[in-house]
């Protein structure tokens, strides 16, 4: 009979271990063992790996807990899925498991063709509104580091998502790592495999096909209109991501209920990765430890200031989706071996604060977001160069005379973030930086550089849905994922995509 055991080993013992299961098996040669969770404990020396494992004298049953996409015929009931990011992708896989035919509508290009548009951003400062770091096969997730960490407590759902990713080529370690990560360099091949399987099983994927509007009869979905004509179905899973502003405008103009959603804004901060390693590992930096990360939080009144999407050994990326705007984000390759670490430092912006700033209505947060990105774009004179400022100069309220080297390839120019953001927001960000120096000594003494703006932390709009996940005003419309306000990252978006496919199945079953 299997039992659960907790193990602890000094980190240096696992320095050159490529296959943890094989290594553990050698430690327990007369039993069968499988790691369930592995976490790094750097609170005191020696730094250790804590391993929770399942062990038995009998062979362990193989873990089969992934979405089983099945082949469907051409006459299967169709479900339209708008957007081919993590939410749309997993909605499609779940539809196939349920015997439904997913028809995916994606405004952007496949991953191979998409690379040319990403290169055009960094080399020529050219933005393709339909193919960029946010739009295209795999969505923003394809080029957003591949972090899979989620605070969701639904362990079985998380395990199923991770097992499905492993089934399509992700490293098996993501199933048991405490902070799983795939890496931007490995994600394109993985999403290609998922797309190929969807098509081979009877689904459809239409790239370079822009959603133009819902087709309704008596407030019921009958199809959608696109740049390549009409697609018919009684159900639409709307999984377009948090940067598809035209979707929000379309719903608003059609008087379909949406609401503003609080979100967070700020900038990215860069430190040498060696400094982060030194601080987090207390000088113990050369014994097989991964590049260190951090998570910092501060509170000023009712508003939080926090680090966001921390990227060890990563780069800052240009993530604008329209010409004339500047947006930054971060990602890391799988080895996280670049010399600089970056993270978003952001503060919450409430609906009440937006109203005080003169923004109201369902699109209040979106319009504020746009105003910040456009101001930065105006300062850049049509380029994708980003505003930058030394952190201590930001606190002092002065423009920096000298800037540091940065991983942001399009380049940076000296600017004052005190003039980019309203005073109250800037003051909270300053408070956060000062607090983080107290929590992580050296955080400011290193005089790191700020690059921004960081404005796409989450959707600025929420598209409502009921307990059945159907929009309350449009039968057959299923708002899904991060763009609808129900997820935050790859894993939670994928889980929501699966839930929405289940909702589509139940809706169609009840209304056929």
UniProtKB/TrEMBL annotation:
Domain spans labelled FAD-dependent protein C-terminal: 262-457
Pfam family, one: FAD-depend_C
InterPro entries: FAD-binding_protein, FAD-depend_C, FAD/NAD-bd_sf
Protein name per UniProt: FAD-binding protein
